[in-house]
Structure formats: structure tokens, C-alpha cells
Amino acid sequence: MPVLRTPSPGWDGQGQAGGSPGTHRVLFLDVTLAPRDPQAPGQFGHPVAVPDDKQEEAKSRWKEGNFNVYLSDLIPVDRAIADTRPAGCSEQRVHDDLPTTSIIMCFVDEVWSTLLRSVHSVLSRSPPHLIEELILVDDFSTKEYLKEKLAQYMLRFPKVKILRLKKRHGLIRARLAGAEIAKGAVLTFLDSHVECNVGWLEPLLERVRQSRAKVACPVIEVISDKDMSYMTVDNFQRGIFTWPMNFGWKQIPQEVIEKNKIKETDIIRCPVMAGGLFSIDKKYFFELGMYDPGLDVWGGENMEISFKVWMCGGEIEIVPCSRVGHIFRNDNPYSFPKDRVSTVERNLARVAEVWLDEYKELFYGHAYHLVLKNLDVGDLTQQIQLRKKLQCKSFQWYLENVYPDLDAPLVKASGLLVNIATARCVTVENTTLALETCDVNNKHQQFNYTWLRLIQHRELCVCPASSAGTPGLRRCHGRSRSLHGRSRSLTWLHRSLVTSQPHMTDHIISRHLQPPTCLEADPSHKALRVNACDSANPYQKWRFGNYYAD
Ligand code: UD2
Ligand code: MN
């Protein structure tokens, strides 16, 4: 029989005293199967050491989950962990009428003890009346213990439902399958190797109750993959991304914290979420079109949902009083139907195509191999229609209002294009190019060097050889990511060979011609030509007026 242990009074003993009507102090619940053994390995989230005579076994079992599976099996499934919430969290009040939630936990070949600990931590540290159900979505696991044995074990928890997928869907579509059958007002997604800390749930639901367009994420703490200890993380972390859409964490600068008097318990608005752990109003999730179902297996869905939420009127928040531990692993312990890298790249390219507007060039510029391989991202009609229907804002709005600290210059360089030897500037004369005296106010001397490596003047691009055999101009046509065929012949390398050819950085190189050739000022000083590249030749060296990126 489960024992209910409440180290501090669960309900605020004074009823409404000290708080507004209809609210209560966040519940401190921590149910155990039996009184806890303080000597048990890993108890209280402490680190565990592998005994000398078990090193081999521990090593050989590592690959079952890409973490210390041997130790996970030693640790009680309902171990205690330190209450890592910032001071003040336990006094916070939440509404009595919080919405109920369906917990959705997808897994594929998850380690037995870790999956159990995840489930136990949810059920023992959440107010039962708020948990509508816990849906375990089995994404076509191959391990025998996850079949009948798991079903039998979970019989003791009437709220646990197991949804078995008939083929491998990947975590994105598996979550959608869970969402389809969920009955709670709010969906709460969790990974299958987590430990929810005390008081984790109510603060998340409180945010969603406040506004259905708030998507609430707990602080993700670290369960060590090596010694299974539960470790807290620094406060004031935001979820961010860098190009080409790599997720990361970034601390709010100390001066910003001081200037704005940000407290440890304050909600943190995030440009993007990590992906795995969040609560979202179910109806709102469906209105947003859930995840793009064209995203495959793993990766990029956190970018998609984050952009979608922000640009279509919602908010992504980290709730410091809600804390959940997660085993971070160096590699996925399961196989990918296709390889991991190309799966994630394709997912991200779909996200870029639908959400990034003109900024998608930054994505492709930072992942230029995708341009070269002419990646097929599949049909985007539905996603683009959805964005229209929801009347979402532009990516530029997102950058200005949500993530102003992201470095996102639309082009790599711009302004005059000056020849070093002659100090003269490339000038557009009707549809041809000439070298003239430089004049910053001359509109015909303005060029952009784009992320797609075009040298662009309005809709025209510098091409290495026009019909006259000299460099000329051509329509850049469609500036799209698919730079196939003719338009790829319009690409130039400039300042991008710093590591491989440091003596050629000032050159403007066309690799389209064989051997590669360089843009050069003609001896007349009035015209342009292309010639065999020569690192010492100053007539082949160029400088744009402004550089925004390397
Ligand atoms: C992070 C997220 C994860 C997801 C992923 C990008 C956190 C803590 N984790 O990577 O939730 O957003 O980024 O997509 O924010 N799974 C399946 N089927 C699959 C693959 C995975 O069910 O084909 C399950 C898996 O068992 C796990 C969950 O999905 O419970 C997330 O996978 P992960 O733990 O390998 O991802 P993680 O934490 O590296
Ligand atoms: Mn995970």
C-alpha cells in the first residue's frame, strides 16, 4: 500500500489566510512505496559508484541506454531527490481550479528502471486530481520487457495507459498519437528518462490557466549519465538557438538581471524551448496544427513549435519553480530509420522554409552543404497555409521582439565593392559592369554579398562570364535555396576560405569555371575580367563597404 509522506504540510494549514481566495500553497507531495531506506544507492539523488568487481558489467550495459544502466537498476524506483527549487517557490500560491493534464511520455526501447522511475516520479509528486492520465506511447519498441511485463507492472496504476504504435513513428508523430487520445485539458510532454521534482506540476498548470497561449516548460535539471546523481543547474537560463538552428542554453547577463531586478523565481521568456518537457493547452496545441506531421523521427520539432507559438500569438516560458531532472546522453541509444544527421537537417530545412521568411538564407548560408545537395524537404503546402490561416507574424517580428540578441544580418557584406589595386568601384551601367571612381552615394555601386554567395545588385547578380566573355549581370532568379543549374554558376567565394586558403581571403573566386577563376580589374582600370587566380595579384583583391559576418 503506498504511504503518503508529506515532509511539510501539504495543504496550506491556514486555508485562505495569507493568500487570495481560491488559491492554495503549492502542494508538496512525495509518495513512496514504503518508508525510504536512507542507505539505498542513489537515495536523495546522491551519486553512486560502481563497485570494483562490477566495472565490466557496468561497462557492457552502458550501451543499453547510453548511460549507466547498471546503476540505474540499483537505485530505488521511487528514490528521493533534493528539493532544488529556489527559495520562495514552496510559498507560492496557485489556483484551486487548475486544469487537469494528460501526461504524454513516448519511448522507444527505454531502459526498464529508468522508465519506471519516470512514471513513479510523475505519479508520486503530482496532485492526483490534476493527472487525468499518463499515456505511455510505445514507439514500436523491440525489447521484450516493454511488452507484457510493462503492461503487468502498470496495472497497479489505473491512470497509466499504454498506446502501442504499430510501426516506428519517431518521437514527433508518437507524441501526436498520444495527443489524439488525451482527455485532459492540458497536455504535458515528458521524456521517458526523467525524475519530476516536488511541486513540479502545479506551477506549470498555473501558467496555462493564466493564459491558454502560454506554453510552460520546467527547468530541466541533470541526472548524471555516469553516477546517476541529481544535479541542479544555474538559474536564469534561456533556451536559444544559433545558426544553423542549433539549440542551446544562454544565461541572462548579470547586468540585465541586476538592472531589471530579476528574481530567481521569476518566469523566463524563451526564444525556443529544449523540446522534451512542456505543458500546453490541448485545444491550443490542436489549433496550432500540433507539430508539422512531416517532421521525421527526432529533432527540429522544438524549433517548429517555438516559432509557431511566438509568431502566432503565444509565449514560451520557463517556470523556475517547476523542476524536472533528465538524463542527458551523448548519443541516441536507438537506431534511426534514416541516419540521424540527414533526418535532423531535413526537419530543420522544413522549419526554415515555413517560418524563417527571408532569414532562411542565414540558415542555408550556415549549412551550405544543404544547398549543394539539393535537399528535398517534401510538401509544405499545408504548413504554409496554416501559417496564413493563423495570421502569424513575420520572422523579423520574432527577431525584434523575442530574440533581439540573435546575430542575424540578412547579408554577409554590402555597400561599395572596391578593387584594392585601383581603388575603383564596380558600377552597374545598364546591364553591364564597369569600374568607376568610388562614390558612396552612387546607387549603381551598391552590392550585397548574400548568404547564398551571390553578388547582388537589386534583382541582378554578378556572373563570371556574360555573352561577351567578360563578367556581367544576370537575373538572380528566385533567390530560393535551390541554387541548382544556372544560378549556382552565379556564386562567388569571398572571405570564406580563411582556413583553407588564407592568402586568398580578399579574392572573389568563381569555382564554377574550371580551374577556378578570380574576378580582376582590367589593366585599363575601367573594366572587369576573370582570370586565373593569383594570390599575390592586388588587381584580384576586393573589399566590400561593410562586413556583417565572416
Ligand atoms: C531533446 C529533447 C527531446 C526532443 C529532442 C529533439 C529534452 C530534455 N529532450 O533530445 O524531447 O525534443 O531534443 O527532437 O528537451 N523517442 C521515441 N521515438 C523515437 C525517438 C525517441 O519515442 O524515434 C523518445 C525517447 O525514448 C525519449 C524521447 O522520445 O523518451 C526523446 O528522445 P531523446 O531522449 O533521445 O531526445 P533528447 O533528450 O536527446
Ligand atoms: Mn531525452
Short synopsis of the structure:
This protein has 14 helices and 25 strands. It is of the alpha+beta class and 550 residues long. The longest helix is centred in the middle third of the chain and has 16 residues, at 340-355.
Helix/strand layout:
Layout: E1 23-25, H1 55-61, H2 69-74, E2 93-95, E3 101-107, H3 112-124, E4 131-138, H4 148-154, E5 160-164, H5 170-181, E6 186-190, E7 194-196, H6 201-210, E8 214-223, E9 230-231, E10 237-242, E11 246-251, H7 254-259, E12 268-269, E13 278-281, H8 282-287, H9 301-311, E14 315-327, H10 340-355, H11 360-366, H12 368-372, H13 381-389, H14 395-401, E15 411-419, E16 424-429, E17 432-437, E18 447-450, E19 455-457, E20 460-463, E21 472-475, E22 509-510, E23 517-521, E24 528-532, E25 542-547
Parallel strand pairs: 3-4, 3-6, 4-5, 8-14
Antiparallel strand pairs: 1-2, 6-13, 7-14, 8-9, 10-11, 12-14, 15-18, 15-25, 16-17, 18-19, 19-20, 20-21, 22-23, 23-24
Helix pairs in contact: 9-10
The chain binds uridine-diphosphate-N-acetylgalactosamine (UD2) and manganese (II) ion (MN).
Manganese (II) ion (MN) is lined by residues 191, 193, 276, 326.
